[in-house]
Amino acid sequence: MSIMSRKEFHDEQAAYDYVEARVWPHGATCPKCGEHERVSKMGGKSTRIGAYKCYKCRKPFTVKVGTIFESSHVPMHIWLQAIYLMCASKKGISSNQLHRTLGVTLKTAWFMSHRIREAMRNENGPFGVGGGSVEIDETFIGKEPGVTKSKTARGGAHKMKIMTLVDRDTKNAKSVVVDDLTVSTMSKVITDNMAREARMITDEYRQYKLMAKDVSAEHDFVRHGAGEYGRGDIHTNTVEGFYSIFKRGMRGIYQHCGKQHLHRYAAEFDFRYNNRSAKEISDTVRADIALTGIIGKRLTYETIGA
């Protein structure tokens, strides 16, 4: 039987029950005051699905309150379909595709996808705890707003810039959008996300050599310019493999992304990478993990930059 035939993808009450079981594993909890004992489900024919009342603060609520679903008129079972599709699509799924598949407007599909990406954002780290190895690399994508391509500037000067760290032990990735590739900017990203005792592995980019003694206990690098792509366990193949999926998705699926949204797209690819099938995490489990991140991640059209 197709996974998309499951009851929570088609029945609204089943969808609410599914979300409640994952967001409230110990029972309904009031998002206003945190009460979970003096709470009861509201009855009556006119009562909306999933409504509860807190008898401490006297406020009604549903599992949507305080989450990415708040104030959304999209049915919960449609939200669950969207979350599953985004979590199961290795290189992402466009808003146009969600619009056609789910039967919602393009604007609604775009807004839903950004809310789901916000739920996927997770502060992993620090990487390399205990002296583990961390691969670090940078990549260029799209066009930096307000920057014109110059014949004298370096190849990626007019493009948006992303730094990614991959922890070889936990096999997790963290991508950060940066404005430039100066030593101060790059070293801050590394110190914010990597343990001081970690072993840093990079390519021969000069900036890493300049900051190495200040950000890591050990620094090894490969010389791509000399045709060297691996020397024992010294390589950046893992982070470059991450980028191969990221760029295929950004160029082939999403095609264009404004810089104000790039951090969420990066978080989406980080999330799927960190919860991938190689870790024996199925599409269903990945979608359930995404559901645990919906709390406190509410976005509006204004805050999302529409």
Structural features:
single chain; 306 residues; alpha/beta; Nucleotidyltransferase, domain 5; five-stranded mixed beta sheet; three-stranded antiparallel beta sheet
Describe the structure.
This protein has ten helices and eight strands. The mean pLDDT is 93. The protein has a domain at 133-274: Ribonuclease H-like superfamily/Ribonuclease H (Nucleotidyltransferase, domain 5, 2-Layer Sandwich). It is of the alpha/beta class and 306 residues long. The strands form two sheets. It has a five-stranded mixed sheet, sandwiched between helices. The chain has a three-stranded antiparallel sheet with strand order 1-2-3, with no helix packed on it. It is 38% helix and 14% strand. It has helices at residues 12-23, 76-88, 95-102, 106-120, 183-193, 206-215, 237-254, 259-274, 283-291, 301-304; strands at residues 39-41, 52-54, 60-61, 133-141, 160-167, 172-178, 199-203, 218-222.
User: Which topology of the domain at 133-274 does CATH recognise?
Assistant: Nucleotidyltransferase, domain 5
CATH superfamily of the domain at 133-274, by name, is Ribonuclease H-like superfamily/Ribonuclease H
- What is the CATH top level name of the domain at 133-274? Alpha Beta
- Tell me the series of helices and strands, N- to C-terminal: HEEEHHHEEEHEHEHHHH
Tell me the quaternary state: single chain
> What summary fits the major beta sheet?
5 strands, mixed
How would you describe the shape? elongated
The overall average pLDDT, rounded, is 93
* Annotation, overall tally of beta strands: 8
As a whole number of angstroms, the C-alpha radius of gyration is 22 Å
What fraction, in percent, of the residue positions are helical?
A: 25-40%
Q: Kindly report how far apart the N and C termini lie.
A: 39 Å
Proportion in β-strands:
5-15%
Structural class: alpha/beta
Name of the CATH architecture of the domain at 133-274: 2-Layer Sandwich
